[in-house]
Design goal:
CATH architecture: Up-down Bundle
Oligomer: single chain
Radius of gyration: 21 Å
Number of helices: 19
CATH class: Mainly Alpha
Strand order of the largest sheet: 1-2
Strand content: under 5%
CATH topology: Amino acid/polyamine transporter I
CATH superfamily: Amino acid/polyamine transporter I
Number of domains: 1
Helix content: over 70%
Order of helices and strands: HHHHHHHHEEHHHHHHHHHHH
Amino acid sequence: MITFIICLVALVAAYFLYGKYLDHVAGIRNTTDVPSKTMFDGVDYIPLPRWKTFLIQLLNIAGLGPIFGALLGAAYGPVAFVWITVGGIFFGAMHDFFSGVISLRNGGLSLPEIVGKYLGGGSKAVMRWFSLALMILVGAVFMSQPAELIAERITAPALDGVAFQSPAGHTFSTLLLIILGLILVYYLVATLLPIDKIIGKIYPVFGGLLIFMALGILWSLFTEYGNQIPEFTGFQNMKANAEKFPLVPMLFTTIACGAISGFHATQSPLMARCMRNENESRVVFYGAMISESVIALIWAAIGMAFWGGVEGLNGAIAANGGAAAILVDKIATATLGEVLALFVIFGVVACAITSGDTAFRSARLIAADMFGIEQKSIVKRIGVCIPVFALGLAIILLLPFGTIWSYFAWANQTLAVFTLWTICVWLHSKGRNIWIALIPALVMTYVCASYIFVSPLMFGMENRLVAYLLGGVLTALIAAFMLKKVYSYGKKLS
């Protein structure tokens, strides 16, 4: 349990120490001259209290990631603790903080527009389509999973028959299609309405529920399962079929939320448009990510401890077909009891749905920025939403979840790479310490590059040495290209 406690303390301390340092680097000011005031539109640019923006940001970025991803990532062993802690402090929280601050300083611009400003028009065009595709993938993931969780807990024999079968062989019952339809309607409403009508009212409640779940599990760790948490002794890979799932890059894509996730950079502009003062940045952006890392750390620990160690966790994952939702249900029922377990499952569903609707909201805003469509008119908002939702639903119906999730994992971290290099340009243009972003940018570039050659969904090369060398060559080429951007665009902007 010593490793777990050290990591937990390090994460909390980082908010006050490294977070304060990043405040200094960014030159955070005590000013109310922010987009919610200067660009108020009553839809997306609306000032909200700091506690609300923090909880909404936490729920937006969290979703299922720090729960499901942490549980599955814990199968690699205690090295997951190290990645969550180091990644959360120096990679993810820094990434979220600066992506939020840069958006705040640029009128609440969405991520593709920010990338375009700092990396050039070509990168902007790529990022627009890449971000839009990722947001639709995220929306699809977080529409299908809560629907299946809800369907599993409802007994309705008359609606259990197969209503649709995808080309991939995945079947959909009538009940599941009905639930998907209801979630889709909610997404449409939440995406269209002003941010303070639904998101601003119910998201803080769900954000509080997410924290409550984590604290309940933390209590169980200290009172019942503490002696079952394994200690970190080295960087050995303890996952079943370790040769098929090497630590690099698989651990870094399995545990994204809780360490670093490119999706977060698409969410930060949403809250950048709602903050009342620039000095709220550390709480809203860095603080929310550190909180997510703590949640991921807790779920990774209970995943290893509940089944008596990493080997037991791997066995449970295999026995349940990799369904993290079932693992969460079993853990919650055993540690918190039937009643509180229902709250946990409700919280898991809520986390998924609320991340899904903000993903679609981000997709609407990205598409609107791409095509120059103003969003004050509800007719124009609907016009943008219809094709976005249609694509999301098509992905759910036509592709198996495992395929969607795997490509999402890689695309998510690739988005983080773009964001990290953008931060490098911004820091260089301001004459600030570029290394705090450059090192994470190089590491994550290599993770995503090596994934192309290692992952069975891509080249799946069995010769790992050659795969890693090719990943290194691709990383060097990307780094050279990006460093040229850093110094050329940074000089122009300085």
